[in-house]
Amino acid sequence: MKKTTRLRELIKAREILISPGAYDCLSAKLIEHMGFKSLSTTGAGISESFLGLPDFGIMGLNDNLTVSKNIAQAVNVPVMADADTGYGNAVNVHYTVRAFEQAGLAGINLEDQVFPKRCGHIKGKEIIATKEMTTKIKAAAAARKDPDFIINARTDAAAIAGIDEAIKRAKAYIDAGADMVFPDAVLSEKDIEKFVKKVSAPVSINMGLAIRQRPTTPLVSFKCLEEMGVARVTFPRMTMSAALTGMKKALETVLKAIKEEKIIERPDLVLSFENMTDMLGYSEMQELEKQIAAL
Fold first, then answer.
1. What secondary structure, in 3-state letters, does 46-93 show?
2. How many whole angstroms from its chain centre is CA 124?
């Protein structure tokens, strides 16, 4: 089965789809190894890890595409990419869709922020006119060669103009050809429920696992979101934030060992060599080596 078809089935299923965010191939393979059925790329995470720059609209199409393509090829589960604003007008969106589809992604997010965009959970966001965004969505839907390739229309209107405006825009984006809608930075659980009830397409919600002290979108249980009718929930920044925390703890241990002139022995802070090689498919590489040697 094509990854695009598989993702479409998972989104339409009654069970909510939990899709953690990957910022590189290693995080993507870990997500797959842990048994998740799909994953998402994180535009913020790619910008921050690949370029060392915040999610402020600096990362371009080629940088994003390079990492997203590698992620998609590293795993067997479907991957949805974060394509930001589509990197320009509707013509740019056409080529953006073609590029991500050809790279093996199963779908993309397209957002209605003014370019250069910024992280959806910080102040200073601006949104483009609804008509401009619907033109982008129409261009995206027309550009895809595989009809199962998912167009996920993200709106940042909830935190700027209110939930009613976000709902109005979502309906327009669905009419323009979006397969799924993603209201970012929804300010209350009540607003999430209202949004899901008012729109006719599958809804994706972004959770933060309290990465911020006061998360913009409230933390809601998977069960509650599923009962509301949410089709998909993502955790874009979780893996990178967790990785940084783990690296920080390990490096603090090194600094302490240097100061105290002690040997470092903290297996609790690192993944074992055996677990690492198992996750990366080392045994499969050895088997391939044997097969090729026997030719």
1. HHHHHHCCCCCCCCCHHHHHHHHHHHHHHCCCCEEEECCCCCCCHHHH
2. 22
Q: Return the closest-CA partner of residue 40 out of 24, 57, 58, 19.
A: 19
Kindly report the pTM of this predicted structure.
0.92
- How many CA atoms, within 13 angstroms, populate the side-chain half-sphere of residue 130? 14
What digits encode the pLDDT tens for the residues 94-145?
Answer: 999 999 999 999 999 999 999 888 776 767 689 999 999 999 999 999 999 9
Considering only the C-alpha atoms of the chain, give the largest distance between any 2 of them, rounded to a whole number of Å: 66
Tell me, letter by letter, the H, E, C secondary structure of the chain: CCHHHHHHHHHHCCCCEEEEEECCHHHHHHHHHCCCCCEEECHHHHHHHHHCCCCCCCCCHHHHHHHHHHHHHHCCCCEEEECCCCCCCHHHHHHHHHHHHHCCCCEEEEECECCCCCCCCCCCCCECCHHHHHHHHHHHHHHCCCCCCEEEEEECCHHHHCHHHHHHHHHHHHHHCCCEEEECCCCCHHHHHHHHHHCCCCEEEECCCCCCCCCCCCCCCHHHHHHHCCCEEEECCHHHHHHHHHHHHHHHHHHHHHHHCCCCCCHHHCCCHHHHHHHHCHHHHHHHHHHHHCC
User: Which of 261, 197, 195, 214 lies closest to 205 in space, CA to CA?
Assistant: 195
Taking the CA atoms of residue 122, residue 154, residue 227 and residue 163 in that order, the dihedral angle to the nearest 10 degrees is: 70
- The domains of the chain, with CATH numbers, are 3-239 (3.20.20.60), 244-293 (no CATH)
Packing angle of the helix pair 238-260, 25-33 (nearest 10 deg): 110
